[in-house]
Amino acid sequence: MTELIPTKGTFAPGEPIEVEVRGDPAVVTLWHLERKVAETETENGLARFPAQPEGGYGVEGGGASSALDVLADPFRRPRYGFVARYDAGRDVRGVVDNVRRLHLNAVQFYDWMYRHASLVPPHDDFKDALGQTISLDTVRRLAAAIREAGSLPMAYAAVYAVGREAWPEWEDAGLYRSDGTPWMLGDFLWNVDPTNERWVSHFVEDLRAALDVGFAGFHLDQYGAPKRALRADGTEVDLADAFPALLERLTADVPEGRMLFNNVNDFPTWSTARASQVATYIEVWAPHVRLGHLAELVTKARSYAPERAVILAAYLSAHRGEESGARAAERLQHAVAFSHGGTVLLHGEESSVLTEAYYVSNKEISPESSESTRRMYDFAVRHGDLLFDRESVDITRAHLGGENLEFRVEAPVPVATDCEPGALWSRVIRTRDGLLFSLIDLSAQEDDRWDSPKASFTPLVGARLAIERVRHAPPRFHFADPDGSPGLVELEPIFDGKYDVVQLPAFAPWAIVLVRESEA
Q1: CA nearest 349: which of 84, 132, 141?
Q2: Which of 171, 363, 384, 516 is the most core-located residue (most Cβ within 10 A)?
Q3: Does an H or E element contain 101, and which?
């Protein structure tokens, strides 16, 4: 059995490409969309290719497949992971393997720090605010290994929190309710005013010191509340204004560090999306409970800042229960995010998934679930030029369904242009490479809540796509799905006098069809 694993989460332009071949030696091929661009023999366990232009690529060999991409900035197409364990002497190789296998090109170091108001510890071995034992040496080794694997280590840092030991020093800079009580998270963190100059200067110095640990930037957290609060003197702070101003200040004062801000439950994405940061990140909570809400969050965030990628943090508590239902829920979550041009922070450590906001309580998943996840990530990376085209336009309701006659999707189940349980959710976007149809099969599902176990998928057989003929020659159709056909395969259309029609291979639960019009 052969396994293909790129040596890096993302390759840089001009950098030769290496793919580790585990198992039997094989002839390995490199693909861009439907075109084979290179072929090589395995030598000393590696398949080596010359540097390639920016974009997503498929890798095939020995009956196995993988993917890789070439990006000047990994945050143009982020696959964000996490680590949350830093015990002394930890072997970091399992984390690095997961980074490479899932193409994670940025990794959040959750709760790596000494205290919220004092990030770098006074000595290497310590306990954090919640009693977790941490070795700064392990943090450093993980950061270095993740960098070497083509990924960016990002340090967690809360932008306005202090613990019990620091509150007396910062009480005069606190945020307060109208009754005079301080805003807190739980019973161990107090919120301070992120516009307070004394606090901001202190925070800047803390971030600068943290860069020396080996981090590439910072995951800047907030808690979603308060949204408006009072200072000790009774004046009001509007956090929707305060956060983007803070981002501008941090970017100016710590230019070596990439900044990524957490918009908790979409607050305040409308004001922070255009501020100085590397991507738009949204942590999802109720009332955003449906798969369609995930799509809306990505679409709206992209509209605020089209030049920025969108990352959702949508923790799957379903993974605490029966694994097959959780695995199905995860596949739908990824299909929705990827097909709308976004990604999800869900996987990390050596083989774990997030089920809640406290990342230390992550859940290790089975090899079967890990393999399912790998296929979804491979698919998104391989077809990234289509899925993450920033110039793409959603034309679904102007061309498909209802009174529209230009495109037809036919199936033995109901077809919908919205996210509806019991239906085949069909969308089409216009990209630089052609029309891209995305088909997500929800026909077996009784609900569309993203964080609930889902019914197992049965491959959908008998779906057809019809395109009204405009030019003299027929368009070309290429089909792909994460499981049966990860690379684009050409389909032969039949002309019925008005439409070019293709029969789609069976798929579950997601497939794409690329349609390129002829030159004639």
Answers
A1: 84
A2: 384
A3: helix 93-101
- In the block, tokens 């023999």 appear at 41
* Whole-number Cα distances in Å, 225 to 190, 228, 238, 239, 313: 12, 8, 11, 9, 17
Alpha-carbon dihedral sign for residues 31, 33, 34, 35: negative
CA distances from 447 to 50, 148, 328, 442, 450 (A): 47, 43, 13, 9, 9
Q: Is 305 left (phi over 0), alpha (psi -120 to 50) or beta?
A: beta
Judge whether 182 and 175 are in contact, CB under 8 Å: yes
What is the per-residue pLDDT across 408-450, written as a single tens digit (0 to 9) for each?
Answer: 999 999 999 999 999 999 999 999 999 999 999 999 999 999 9
What's the CA gap between 10 and 102, in Å, rounded?
A: 10
Instruction: Report whether pLDDT(519) > 80.
Output: no
Banded pLDDT at 477 (limits 50, 70, 90): very high
158-180 pLDDT tens trace: 999 999 999 999 999 999 999 99
Sheet holding 347-348, edge to edge: 347-348, 352-353, 363-364
CA distances in angstroms from 94 to 66, 100, 250, 393, 395, listed in the order given: 18, 10, 33, 40, 43
Helices marked H in 393-464: 396-399
pLDDT number for residue 517: 85
pLDDT in tens, 332-385: 999 999 999 999 999 999 999 999 999 999 999 999 999 999 999 999 999 999
Nearest residue to 61 (alpha-carbon basis) of 16, 17, 31? 31
In the block, tokens 């090589």 appear at 40
pTM of the model: 0.97
- For the chain, the farthest-separated pair of C-alpha atoms sits apart, in whole angstroms, at 79
Partners of 409 in beta bridges: 465
